[in-house]
Amino acid sequence: MFLLCNILYGTNIGELDNIEVIRVSPEDADHLIGERQTGCHKLAGTKLGNFGAFLEKIWHQNDILWGRLDGAERIIDAIFPGKSDDVTALLGEAQAAIVLETIEKFSLDNEVNDLLIESLMRTKSGKEDRDGLTAFIEKLKRGATVEQKVLLDKKIDNGKIRERYFSEFDRRSKPQRHLKKD
């Protein structure tokens, strides 16, 4: 390769191989939560000069989870361009597996619920997104295999997660609370 580069340097031949650049961004990965459509910011780390995820463990866990979910979506989209039913099924199965692997580490229901609601704490309006929470959980479960859905239903109680979201929203949606001394 070194010899080839030296021979081609300064010529008008250009690149020999086509290179496709694929962006991996929370805005581009919209299967579970579409940031552009909902105005909801999935990542906590974008707050406070992109250091938000260092302030609270749940924010860090949230950002890692969404990095994995969005990364899987963008990789699957890159390998299988187009939105066929098979690709959508593969994506749903991959994302359900990632969520299951992540939430299996938690022993308490509130820990699971806190992680899953965290991505919906930063809404454009500054208010709870009742429909967004329901849509997120439904899309996650709908894309899962039968076995994954059984496990998700055991770990995620729709009623409890909604209750936790609405009780925690005002307290947790404001990063400024971490900057004030008590």
Describe this structure in words.
With 182 residues, the chain is an all-alpha fold. The protein has one domain (25-174). The chain contains 8 helices and no strands. The chain has helices at residues 2-8, 35-38, 57-79, 85-103, 109-118, 130-142, 146-155, 158-172. Helix 5 packs across helix 8. The N and C termini lie far apart (61 Å). The mean pLDDT is 84.
Q: What keywords describe this structure?
A:
globular, 182 residues, 8 helices, mainly alpha
Oligomer: single chain
Provide the number of structural domains.
Answer: 1
Report the C-alpha radius of gyration, rounded. 20 Å
Largest sheet: none
Please, what is the average pLDDT? 84
Structural class: mainly alpha
Calculate the terminal CA-CA distance, rounded to whole Å: 61 Å
